[in-house]
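> call design_seq(struct)
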């Protein structure tokens, strides 16, 4: 982490003036756009700690397109949390943007000038500010009551959809499309925004979100067919030796589908119990591990490390939703274990590392 005190600069690309702040620290996450769109997480961004001097912060001009995320270390309750709100902006080398940020009773408000994109994002933030503050009063990142918070996030997404509907010509529409709306709304407006998306440096991120939205909507639609007593959807996937394996080939035996990933801590922690259960029922029941949201290398390394003796299949995300097995089975959490009868029907579905799965398996496979 780099600590910087940025003095006034006549060539500043971003200038932020502050009113009423008691903390002089700003955390800045930044990256060239070309790196930002390919980053797998925010941990790959550069992190700077900036110091406000004379109520002013200035960022020198960059010679390439940049992504900036300014987080202000100031709260209304003396907690260590940063304010949930932040300022996000994308700049071109020629941009000269000025922000005015002022402290309020709960957090802060701001305005932007000098860039259609920055002004659009600021307008959106003002539009959702009431619900953002309502969420922040409850959700401090410590204890989260989702029964209360979830409807508030739903309301925020609904407000974002309304803003998007009324601002399709704003450059900030792409930001709202990617970061703020539900999957069905994303798909509703994707085609109309496609000309703008194709010209945007954020196009790779938008297209990743498109793939995720397609999968999410298809998963929701699949729920109606994935239930106890329903016929288990058929599929064909390749195992770790490259051989095609069909679910139908196991008809006549009990089958356990284990949707997991090498990245999933709960999945990995459950392997010892899975090994024990498999050893007890393997003569009458076949286990089928289906790796999801994984890379081929990570999956193969995990198979080598944990020595799971049952069938192991790889479910690639690089396929259409209709061909994605985790979508066909409406998988929304990992691990998910599904017991299938010898007749090919879904017997029980267990989401998470649930001890009830092992009890049920022992009861039905005798």
């Amino acid at each position: 982490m780099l600590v910087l005190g940025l003095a006034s600069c006549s060539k500043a690309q971003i200038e932020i003036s502050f009113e009423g702040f008691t903390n002089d620290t700003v955390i800045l996450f930044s990256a060239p756009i070309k790196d930002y769109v390919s980053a797998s997480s925010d941990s790959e961004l550069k992190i700077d700690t900036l110091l406000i001097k004379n109520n002013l912060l200035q960022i020198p001009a960059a010679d390439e397109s940049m992504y900036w995320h300014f987080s202000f270390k100031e709260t209304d309750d003396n907690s260590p949390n940063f304010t949930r709100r932040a300022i996000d902006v994308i700049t071109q080398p020629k941009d000269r943007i000025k922000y005015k940020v002022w402290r309020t009773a709960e957090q802060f408000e701001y305005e932007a000038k000098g860039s259609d994109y920055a002004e659009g994002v600021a307008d959106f933030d003002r539009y959702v500010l009431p619900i953002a503050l309502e969420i922040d009063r409850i959700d401090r990142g410590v204890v989260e009551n989702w029964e209360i918070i979830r409807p508030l996030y739903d309301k925020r997404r609904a407000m974002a959809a309304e803003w998007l509907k009324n601002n399709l010509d704003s450059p900030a529409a792409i930001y709202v499309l990617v970061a703020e709306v539900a999957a069905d709304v994303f798909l509703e407006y994707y085609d109309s925004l496609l000309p703008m998306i194709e010209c945007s440096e954020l196009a790779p991120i938008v297209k990743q979100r498109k793939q995720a939205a397609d999968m999410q909507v298809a998963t929701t639609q699949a729920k109606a067919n994935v239930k106890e007593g329903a016929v288990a959807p058929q599929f064909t996937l390749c195992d770790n030796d490259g051989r095609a394996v069909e679910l139908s080939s196991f008809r006549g035996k009990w089958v356990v589908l284990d949707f997991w990933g090498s990245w999933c801590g709960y999945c990995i922690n459950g392997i010892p119990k899975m090994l024990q259960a498999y050893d007890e029922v393997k003569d009458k029941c076949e286990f089928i591990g289906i790796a999801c949201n994984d890379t081929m290398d990570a999956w193969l390394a995990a198979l080598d490390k944990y020595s799971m003796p049952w069938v192991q299949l790889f479910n690639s995300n690089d396929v259409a939703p209709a061909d994605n097995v985790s979508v066909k089975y409406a998988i929304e959490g990992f691990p998910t274990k599904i017991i299938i009868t010898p007749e090919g029907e879904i017997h029980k579905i267990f989401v998470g590392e649930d001890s009830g799965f092992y009890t049920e398996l022992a009861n039905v496979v005798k």
